[in-house]
Design goal:
Shape: elongated
Distance between the termini: 63 Å
Number of strands: 5
Order of helices and strands: HHEHEHHEHEHEHHHHHHHHH
CATH architecture of the largest domain: 3-Layer(aba) Sandwich
Largest sheet: 5 strands, parallel
Helix content: 55-70%
Radius of gyration: 24 Å
CATH superfamily of the largest domain: P-loop containing nucleotide triphosphate hydrolases
Strand order of the largest sheet: 2-3-4-1-5
CATH class of the largest domain: Alpha Beta
Length: 332
């Protein structure tokens, strides 16, 4: 039975975490000293935060790490009950709360166990306030590791008790290095264009990259075209072409026709088109003054789409703005 690669190749040690060298070195120092503070692992999705928390436990406790490590997902249980528990619930279906687990004396030589709260920035303020008190009472026997996308969503009393480790997006080079290792282990031959396509579509999210790569492998021959089709989007070259037609050549009807082909025949959403154009524009070498105005137009279109406006109308308006920018720069 084929295993999902994001689990099959999940790092079991801090040394296996790609693209976060500075953070990894600091975490290794804590593990080596056997003195772990409360931690906040902050950063975008798919950058190794959960893997780092599990690797810390594995390196600290060895084979008994699961007995000393409680993982909870705060996005599933956001309220105060996940912290304090349900005193009046039927004990047969009661989940272990943070307070319940913190009360248990650790059964290891280090003298503490770990509670890992994934997506902790989804906890309500009441839940975080209750958690702060639990951290105070059981600080000698329990260490907390919080995984968050936005550390600003954690209340200051908890932040002040933690060391914040900031993870960043995985660079294309580190991502391709990891993909080459997996390809070799799976016996897959891939070329540079395929790896470029996966890195381009993943936007620094290594978990997303592995899912795309595995899906393409299961679909048959891995090609850049397969990567973009499975991602439901177009390549950076396609978006660059759209920008060139509108912003540099002032071709409204031709650009709209090209985008309609993307939306109708390839199923690409208006939001994906706007974001693809943004990425292509950021990488382009157009005149800085033109780039600034074009970014403003793209930002306005993205805002209106988020608010629920029509894809077709907003895309047409965006192309019209880009063509107008071209005309104003060329005295038309």
């Amino acid at each position: 039975m084929n295993q999902i690669w994001i689990e099959k190749y999940r790092p079991s040690s801090l040394s296996d975490i790609f693209g976060q060298e500075e953070v990894v070195q600091r975490l290794k120092a804590f593990v080596k000293s056997k003195e772990l503070p409360h931690l906040i692992l902050a950063g975008p999705a798919g950058t190794g935060k959960t893997s780092a928390a599990m690797a810390i436990a594995i390196e600290l406790y060895g084979e008994s790490w699961k007995e000393n490590f409680l993982e909870l997902n705060a996005s599933n249980n956001r309220g105060i009950n996940v912290i304090r528990g349900h005193e009046d619930r039927d004990k047969s279906d009661r989940q272990v709360s943070v307070k319940d687990y913190a009360r248990i004396m650790p059964n290891n030589s280090l003298g503490f166990k770990i509670i890992f709260m994934d997506e902790a920035d989804q906890l309500t303020n009441d839940a975080q306030s209750a958690l702060r008190r639990t951290m105070e009472v059981y600080s000698t026997t329990t260490r907390f590791i919080f995984s968050v996308n936005y550390s600003s969503q954690i209340i200051p009393p908890i932040q002040s008790r933690c060391v914040v480790m900031r993870f960043h997006l995985v660079s294309p080079e580190d991502m391709k290095k990891k993909l080459r290792i997996i390809a070799e282990k799976e016996g897959i031959n891939v070329d540079g264009e395929v790896l470029d396509a996966v890195a381009d579509e993943s936007d620094g999210d290594l978990r997303k990259a592995l899912n795309i790569f595995q899906s393409a492998h299961f679909a048959g021959k891995i090609t850049p075209k397969t990567i973009y089709e499975l991602s439901g989007t177009a390549s950076s070259k396609d978006f660059g072409k759209v920008l060139s037609m509108s912003l540099q050549n002032g071709l409204f009807e031709e650009t709209v026709s090209e985008i309609e082909n993307m939306m109708i025949n390839r199923g690409i959403s208006g939001m994906d088109i706007v974001r693809g154009m943004h990425s292509a524009l950021r990488r382009s070498s157009v005149n800085p003054a033109i780039k600034v105005r074009a970014l403003q137009a793209i930002g306005e279109a993205e805002f209106r789409l988020v608010e629920g406006s029509s894809d077709r109308i907003q895309i047409d308006a965006l192309i019209a703005n880009l063509v107008e920018i071209h005309g104003s720069q060329n005295g038309q």
